[in-house]
Amino acid sequence: MKKLLSFIALSFLLLSCSSDNDSGNNIDPIIGTWEGGVTTEEYTFLISITFNSEGTGIESYNFSTTDGSEQNSGSENFTWENTALNPDFNSLNQTYQLIFTGQEPEIIPFTFSADFQTAYSNDGEREFTKV
Fold this sequence. Notes:
This protein is mainly beta. 11% of the residues lie in helices and 47% in strands. The protein has one helix spanning 2-16, and strands at 32-39, 43-51, 56-65, 71-82, 93-100, 106-112, 118-121, 127-130.
């Protein structure tokens, strides 16, 4: 009986331990909603982008001039994919292809912060924060 209890206890311990495969990111770090924008003396441009896990997304934007003479807002659907053949979701550098309806594909390399809560485009023009 003592051997049986020891075997059961040992089996439980081995099965309950996490494996090396459980460490790190198992999903693409871009999945979720990101916000960014630019504010100058002349205008404000705000953007929100949602990347869904099935490769679709929506971009919403608001533009307004400081004097209120011009305002524009809207949204566009797109499809996206990580361009790596075997993506490493723990890597801070990822490259994505976005395709908006009726437009040419856009390739965007991003560098993520260590906590994957901020994404910077490699051209330095875009900075997004995960919400």
